[in-house]
Write a structure and sequence with these properties.
CATH architecture: 3-Layer(aba) Sandwich
Largest sheet: 8 strands, mixed
CATH superfamily: Alpha/Beta hydrolase fold, catalytic domain
Structural class: alpha/beta
Strand content: 15-25%
Number of helices: 10
Low-confidence stretches: 166-170, 179-189
Distance between the termini: 38 Å
Length: about 300
């Protein structure tokens, strides 16, 4: 059985591992300063032992992007993943302005309420920028960082701040329609890889949640983490940078910039891997993360 707050499209999943992962999603009524009402926040928690690992997903994504990586990390470490404010299956309240600052406050309240111990913070794509921002704000909480094809130097397009109705709606809806088109093609083309169909199903499931359009528009208009680049060099935590060399979303020189600017860092490039190593090469990604921790980088 699936939780009743999930979209009905969840019943279209046929992959047994994906189904089991979705069935393990939990939700808590999280009290924050952002709203008078608690924010119903979704997360997954598995494993025991070691310093807790907290996984942060990318832009317009959800904890489902860690469905392959989280179980591997949880074999050795207590591991969490949370749907960031405005994203995933976490509740979107109309009175909240969705921005990196709001995400940071919500993430701190999640950590304080459910974990309340120093953590290893793992961020993928936009989640990497969130991890950097959080670490700079709360350095006493984060023992070390893992950045997976992270945002930081490459921000949102400048025009995103100036979207206005109805074009803001259409710009956001375009994200959803791309997934729908790909899913429809997958259902009629027998040669379409079943793993790709599953990936699309998981990638678009959260887009059916109430308030998705409004929260996305609110966030995009802030410009996201476009002001982060000049502060990355302030990081002083042991940092592992994992970078899929075939990334077609972020320029390859960003990987070297992270390594140069973060004093206590190491860069590992992943061959034959694109923007999402956590999905494309979960075994290798988990091995690098656990090896980084086993070497005492915390």
């Amino acid at each position: 059985m699936f939780a009743n707050f999930l979209p009905s499209q969840v019943n279209q999943l046929t992959d047994l591992e994906a189904i089991a992962f979705v069935q393990s999603i939990q939700r808590t009524a999280l009290a924050t300063s952002l709203s008078q009402q608690p924010i119903l926040t979704t997360y997954i928690h598995k494993g025991r032992g070691g310093i807790p690992i907290l996984l942060l997903h990318g832009f317009d994504s959800s904890i489902l992007e860690f469905r392959l990586l989280l179980p591997l990390l949880a074999i050795q470490n207590e591991t969490w993943a949370v749907d960031l404010l405005g994203f995933g299956f976490t509740q979107r309240q109309k009175e909240i302005s969705y921005s990196p600052t709001a995400i940071k406050i919500h993430l701190y309240d999640f950590w304080k309420t459910l974990i309340n111990r120093p953590i290893i913070l793992v961020g993928a794509s936009m989640g990497g920028a969130t991890a950097i921002e959080f670490t700079l704000a709360y350095p006493e909480i984060v023992k070390s960082l893992v950045l997976i094809n992270s945002l930081g130097y490459t921000g949102a397009p400048a025009f995103s701040k100036y979207l206005f109705p109805p074009f803001d709606f259409f710009a956001v809806e375009y994200l959803r329609q791309r997934h729908i088109l790909a899913l429809n093609l997958g259902s009629i083309l027998p040669s379409f890889n079943a793993k790709i169909v599953l990936a699309i199903q998981c990638a678009m499931l959260h887009q059916e949640m109430p308030g998705w359009h409004d929260a996305m528009i609110s966030y995009v208009k802030t410009g996201g983490y476009s002001d982060l680049a000049n502060r990355i060099a302030l990081l002083d935590k042991p940092t592992l940078i994992l970078w899929g060399e075939a990334d077609d979303m972020l320029p390859p020189e960003d990987a070297e910039k992270f390594q140069q600017d973060i004093a206590n860092s190491q860069l590992i490039k992943l061959n034959n891997c694109g923007h999402a190593p956590q999905l494309e090469q979960p075994q290798i990604t988990s091995q690098h993360i656990l090896q980084f921790l086993n070497n005492g980088n915390f």
